[in-house]
Specification:
Layout: E1 8-13, H1 20-34, E2 38-43, H2 49-56, E3 61-63, H3 72-79, E4 88-92, H4 94-107, E5 110-115, H5 125-134, E6 140-143, H6 149-154, E7 162-164, H7 178-185, E8 192-197, H8 206-217, E9 223-228, H9 234-242, E10 248-252, H10 257-263, E11 266-269, H11 278-285, E12 290-293, H12 298-301, E13 308-311, H13 316-328, H14 331-348, H15 351-363
Parallel strand pairs: 1-2, 1-4, 2-3, 4-5, 5-6, 6-7, 8-9, 8-11, 9-10, 11-12, 12-13
Length: 367
């Protein structure tokens, strides 16, 4: 019997819609439950796809239905979660941290929070103030990359309470061959395919990727781009790509991540800030190199020159040059980059390793 047997953990999130943080809890909660932890999940403002997935998997779920931070009836409903008598409250996001702190105090539980946003993530003044209010009182804070530590300490989280647990994900399954997927996407055998896989939010800076692809194609016309993902900027991306259909294919949200990676030659990321993006971890798991800008946790994920390329943040010309370099590599050289990335995945980013780390952390927190 593991030490986690019977430990009651209440996971408290603002939302369980689309995003890396939400995907993480969807993987983590059932895995901890399988190890004997008594897990349940509550969301404050939105349900979303991962909420329904966890509910279908038999995880006890609660939707609080808060309309805003000033929704007094919603706050009362959230506070009453103390009646679940958790041993540990596990929160993610500033609203959940504040509510989770109150619930943990009332129920005598320990409080663990995870900070998914990478170094440089913008925080409004009121969010910084709320974080500084609760940070010194939280028992443990999980950072997904060491690049977050200084910013977390500046918010008031004691350094000796920060634990680094990188995000992880199962290796995505594939159901179609490379040839089948390329034919479906209208790609030629000779094309070198750069995949951009993300929820299309402003911080992903997909417009930089599109501009870099167009510049790179002036030197390497075999380069083709595929953009996959939903999000608030999907229509904007379609508009930007419409002028160059021979260069860019925009797919929208897709569930067949493994098939898209199988059809691609490398993954790209041009974000303003990042923690440990799961799309990069998935690419590594399937032996795909990564070309990314040097921000946040990407400096730890991508070993420049060994598993991919890193370029200065916001520098479109440098990113375009990296695209040309990788596209012109012989296929066996790209494969070598990808195999090195897969080795790093097996060593640091498997789901089992992540769950082991969280289980050990939770076992050590006493309410």
């Amino acid at each position: 019997m593991g030490r986690g047997e019977g430990v009651r953990v209440l996971f408290l999130y603002s939302t369980l819609t689309v995003g890396g943080s939400e995907r993480q809890v969807a993987h983590l909660v059932p895995a901890l439950r399988a190890r004997g932890f008594v897990t349940e999940v509550a969301t404050l403002r939105h349900r979303g796809r991962h909420y329904e997935e966890l509910l279908a998997a038999g995880i006890p779920m609660t939707f609080v239905g808060m309309r805003s931070r000033m929704d007094v009836p919603g706050l009362v409903r959230a506070y009453r979660l103390w009646r679940r008598r958790p041993n540990i409250v596990f929160s993610s996001g500033i609203d959940a941290q504040v509510v989770g702190h109150a619930v943990a105090l009332r129920s005598g539980a320990g409080h663990v929070t995870v900070e998914q946003g990478g170094a440089g993530i913008p925080r409004s003044l009121h969010r910084r103030l709320l974080a500084r209010l609760v940070a010194p009182r939280i028992d443990r804070v999980v950072a997904v990359t060491s690049t977050q530590i200084d910013e977390l300490a500046a918010l008031g989280f004691p350094r000796d309470r920060i634990t680094i647990i990188p995000n992880a994900t199962p290796r995505p399954s594939t159901s179609r061959s490379r040839q089948e997927m390329r034919a479906e996407l209208g790609l030629e055998d000779a094309d070198v395919v750069a995949l951009f896989l993300a929820t299309l939010r402003p911080e992903k800076r997909v417009e930089l990727f599109l501009e870099a692809v167009l510049r790179a194609r002036r030197e390497e016309p075999r380069l083709r781009a595929v953009v996959a993902g939903g999000g608030p900027q999907l229509e904007l991306v379609r508009e930007l790509a419409a002028a160059s259909p021979e260069a860019v294919c925009v797919l929208g949200e897709r569930s067949d991540v493994g098939n898209l990676l199988e059809a691609s030659d490398f993954l790209c990321m041009t974000s303003s800030f990042e923690g440990v993006p799961l799309s990069v971890v998935e690419a590594m798991s399937l032996a795909r190199p990564v070309v990314a800008m040097r921000v946040g946790g990407l400096v730890e994920l991508v070993d420049d020159g060994r598993t991919g390329r890193l370029t200065p943040p916001g520098d479109v010309d440098a990113f375009a040059r990296a695209l040309v370099e990788v596209a012109r590599e012989p296929p066996e050289a790209r494969r070598a980059l990808g195999e090195a990335a897969r080795e790093d995945f097996e060593r640091r980013y498997t789901l089992e390793r992540m769950v082991d780390s969280y289980a050990e952390l939770l076992e050590g927190v006493e309410g």
